[in-house]
Amino acid sequence: MSLNATLRTATSGLQAAQMGLRAVSDNIANVNTPGYVRKTVEQQPLVVAGEGMGVSVTGTKRVTDQYLELASQTAAGESSRWSSYSQYMDTAQGLFGDPTSENFFFNRLDTIYSGFSAAANDPSSTLLRGQAVANVQDFLGESQRINGQLNSLSQTMDTRISADVSQANDLLTRINSLNGDIVRARLIEQDASGAENIQAQLVDQLSGLMGVKVSPHAGGGVDIRSGDGLKLAGDGAVTLAYNASPGNPGYITATADGGAPQPLQLDSGEVRGLLDLRNTELPQLSDQLSEFVQGAVDQLNAAHNASSAVPAPATLTGRNTGLDIGSAITGFTGQSTVALTDASGVVQRKVAIDFDAQTMSVDGGPATAFSPASFDADLNTALGAMGSASFANGTLQIAGTGGLGVAIDEGTSQKAGKAFSHFFGLNDLVRASGPGTYATGLTATSDHGFTPGDTITLRLSQPDGKALQDVTVTVPAAPTMGDLVNALNTTSNGVGLYGSFALDTQGRLSFTGSSPTNAVLSVVSDKTARAGSNMSMTELFGLGPGERSSRANQFSTNPAIVTDPSKLAFAHLDLGVAAGLPALRAGDARGALALAESGDQNTQFGAAGGLSTVNMTVGRYASEFSGSIARAASDAQSRSDAAQSVKTEADARRQSAESVNLDEELVNLTTYQQAFNASARMIQAAKELFDVLTNMI
Questions:
Q1: DSSP assignment of 546-563, as one string?
Q2: 245 pLDDT higher than 60
Q3: N or C: which terminus of the chain has fewer CB atoms within 10 Å of its end residue's CB?
Q4: Does residue 192 have a pLDDT over 90?
């Protein structure tokens, strides 16, 4: 080997040792720097013409483990998702109060029943009646407070998601910019580990916000993709946007330069947890709260409608059923009696209605036929000059004249689980500003009543809020509910590709998503109106989370009873008394006892939240509902704890592989020092040999 070759070989070794020492010194200096990844020098033999000519340094490399990085990022996404989810589920559970406290929301029902039980012992006590009414008001007010707070939580989700999306946009921009720095550094064979460390920290932050897939970028840096493979950064950063409107699922879109917004699928991260709460859990809680309140109110109203105040009220005005009179009466079975009584409770006119035979009998006289389509006019005729009956805007009204009051014996009448007066809400204790219940009593053969050509636009989304499709359904010219359901379920311009609508035995219309998308439904716009009531399809059937989650706010105690508790219906109409004797008596407390026992009556609750359609008592449903809230909060906490444990372990293993080990670095320092000294001695030996040769010449 020539002296020049010897010098070149020694010089390359000297340079390699210097770079190694520089890397070791950086590692030691940054031993306590968060996010720093130790680095090593990559070198390889330098061979020229088959002969070794020293060493070539190819660059500086960060000591990373791709598998551990992926595991850590995935764990961070899951931990952030369930941490945010658990935090707000615990807040939502707290809205219902402490189960051990008498102020616990579900304990307020017992207070209502106890109040009516106490009033039954002394039905003439205005104080006890007033307290019973106040208990009902307190229960409804508390339910509205909780529902309002749940809606406020949804708004909080919107705020946090918007902030997270803004932060994610900043991170994507910075990650993409660092790609350029890393590529340029590698092209000129410079150390890019500093930029790579910063980029890795940014990727970790992004993984906590939204689950992403990270892969190496050609030339250096990383590519960022969403769970469904959409590229977010690498050769340019997309712009994320949060799309949310009241009553519809919120979702994230990504827009590349010059491109159209693309819905984004999120598998994990804080944003996914917040979206799950905003789109699914909180609306389900509101819906189930509303269904629970509706069930409790329904049984109170059933008892109140089966009773009467003394003296009977001059007018009974029902709720807006959303139906025309023909549809409302069709489907009734059994018998009911409308009575007009004087101030002493003596019956002056009695109209017995037989829904099976579709006849009316006045004061025990011969039965005359009535038609469902003209029921109000036929009843008005039967009442004669003593009273009147009318039906307008979906509402039935029956009134007495000349100081007479109206009382109703429900008898055996029945439709959609409700008796005659109860179905129309003629003597409700609790009023609703909307339909309240979605048990319309309509069947597949009933007229749908909507104007042909009217449209409703529905949005189908994935559970994480990603929009699948908007469909606009046109009300068919065919007249029946079966025809309307078929129009809704078509695959061409209906929901058939993602699920189906069905009408249950009580006339509830509901949507069920099909696998694998398990789509959820919301209403974008509704231009339908049912003849006779002007109620839209959304209102009548409670379509979409927006309509259903606001239902708890519709209920209020009958203002006439709040003003005058003596108008509480505590007496039963007794049609078995002899002529001339009072059928209503002031001391009768059977209605009060029925109100006190209403929580023990079975009622059908529609599917809501985590419960399907069930038939049980209000008290039992309260237990199931409160238990489901506790289970959901506990499950969220367990998932959060488990995800945090996995993240802690993944981070520990990653840190073990990537962090600086001082003992190892000291060994490397000694090795590079010795290599440096050896190369220096070789240069010194070559110099001495060159000097000897020069002196000889």
A1: HHHHTGGGGEEE-HHHHH
A2: yes
A3: C
A4: no
